């Protein structure tokens, strides 16, 4: 995720709420599209909270209803056929830490009831155990579906939805954060170089950055990361300072034709950022964008 000073308003709000909620022990729900950075923000929530335990993430869709209780609570040896040893569940592994339950919309109904009981009583039984264990982790949840939709569609039982509605962080998709794309792309490129034992220096051509900003990014930040890492390889991973150009980007990005609505959104974002950087001075914003001042004035009126 981009540094806060460079972030668009939607992400700044998400980061600020994340840091604000870190001080309380209540469950936090992160809502946003696939690949937008919900897990990254949940990790930030954990690190900002000062908790000494681990950050553990569990995807609700990975376990059937019969197995989800075992995933969450764990079991004791001999609890069922095949239980040859004690197994700590996610709650125990996140002791004094944070447990993120992803894809909450796919959480089985019976598991929701069990989870609600855990949230209320702060105790649970590992499968096959005779004694209860104390819950000593902080819960976080993630969903690609809004809380309102989860309730209206009957995905969540009412009591659980009320628990998740107190502290909600909306994570915007990359389409709402186009002005951040150059910053994020450069960070991903630098991290990828360091990961492979190289200096972090990478350059991007103006054409490459324009194409990255114009693309629709259906998989959001996750998709951008994959594209940037591939582009760095094609530009020359072992070069002293590789330059990522349009030729190094996938064909789907180079040949992408945004719809009229997408073009309008991009223009609004670019003008808003230019005006902010120019402290509201339309002449200076026009100079930065390379357009006539009247164009900026027209879009500024629309933004208002």
Overall description:
With 304 residues, the chain is α/β, with parallel strands linked by helices. The chain folds into 3 domains: 4-172, P-loop containing nucleotide triphosphate hydrolases (Rossmann fold), CATH 3.40.50.300; 175-254, Helicase, Ruva Protein, domain 3; 260-303. The protein has helices at residues 9-21, 38-49, 65-73, 90-93, 109-121, 147-152, 158-164, 181-195, 206-214, 220-236, 251-254, 260-277, 282-289, 293-303, and strands at 28-31, 55-59, 74-75, 87-88, 98-102, 123-124, 133-134, 138-143, 168-170, 203-204, 243-244. The strands form 4 sheets. The protein has a 5-stranded parallel beta sheet. It has a two-stranded antiparallel sheet with strand order 3-4. The protein has a two-stranded antiparallel sheet with strand order 6-7. It is elongated. It starts with 8 loop residues before the first helix and ends with a helix.
Residue share in β-strands: 5-15%
Envelope shape: elongated
The major β-sheet equals: 5 strands, parallel
Number of helices: 14
- Provide the helix percentage: 40-55%
- What's the pLDDT, averaged over the residues? 85
CATH architecture of the largest domain: 3-Layer(aba) Sandwich
Strand order of the largest sheet: 2-5-8-1-9
- Count of beta strands: 11
Total domain units: 3
Low-confidence stretches: 1-7
Q: Quick one: CATH superfamily of the largest domain?
A: P-loop containing nucleotide triphosphate hydrolases
Please write the CATH class name of the largest domain.
Alpha Beta
CATH fold-level assignment of the largest domain: Rossmann fold
Structural class: alpha/beta
- The H/E string reads HEHEHEEHEHEEEHHEHEHHEHHHH
Rg estimate, integer Å = 23 Å
Distance between the termini: 28 Å
